[in-house]
Specification:
Largest sheet: 8 strands, mixed
Radius of gyration: 19 Å
Number of helices: 8
Order of helices and strands: EEEEEEEEHHEHEHEHHEHEHE
Shape: globular
Strand order of the largest sheet: 7-8-9-10-11-12-13-14
Helix content: 25-40%
Strand content: 15-25%
Structural class: alpha/beta
Distance between the termini: 42 Å
Number of strands: 14
Length: about 290
Amino acid sequence: MSSNPARFYTRLPEGAVRCDLCPRHCVIGRGGCGWCKTRCNEEGELLTLAYARPAAIAIDPIEKKPLMNFLPGTQTLSLGAFGCNLDCCFCQNSSLSRGVYNAAGDWRVVTPAEAVSLALANDCPSISLTYNEPTIWIEYAMDIARIARPVGVKTVLVTNGFIDPEAARELYPLVDAANIDVKGFSEEFYESMCGGSLSPVKTACEIFKNEAGGHLELTNLVIPGRNDSPAMIEEFLDWVESALGLDTPLHFNAYFPAYHYRQSPRTPASLLHRIGDRAGERGFKFVQLGNI
């Protein structure tokens, strides 16, 4: 299967490489792949299997990303691939996040220029990099954004924010709007439920809004008994207020049992309304409840 050169890595002795794209910093021996299964070592060079090979293409309302205050009422060309750099046991889109590229696949190739042309042909003022985790196909994302901006097409990133700060500082200035999924506001939650860490996600949010200056909205998937305690919600709101501002749009979405985690029931609407009301009481200007 053909592949393309990747960026953000360090060569190591004996033909190994360290991927520097996300906080995992996978050390990959010759012939191996990183955690995400899309970034692989071929003869001491890091290659990406996902470049220009979307596994999903659709036209969606921008509100589905979800974004409430960016190009409202418009359609967006959505592109997604396979793989993820987290392993959320409750993943709501595991068919893509856990999907893999393989040599037998007859993958459709959509170059960055073709993606922009598709958006223009379908009257989409934006392209959304979404469905799976676009960080792991950063090279494709950056090339799309570079071609899109000069012709007036915006780039939207729907991401888990689990990215190395150096890579974020190269990608984020090219992106016009993002929805970053803050999955739960504790390190314990990220470690036990996502196989990751909260701290890099907080840093990514701050880089996107405060350094890159993009339009940022946040999503929190509320899982009963896991990340819905009043104390955790208050800590989340404290951080957003102090680090990002009360004008940051917040989306609180209902969880439904999926993938490996089914111990919690579907999130009741009453719980989301209580959280939304509390955010409003604290002065957050834009609060939306989803999946209800």
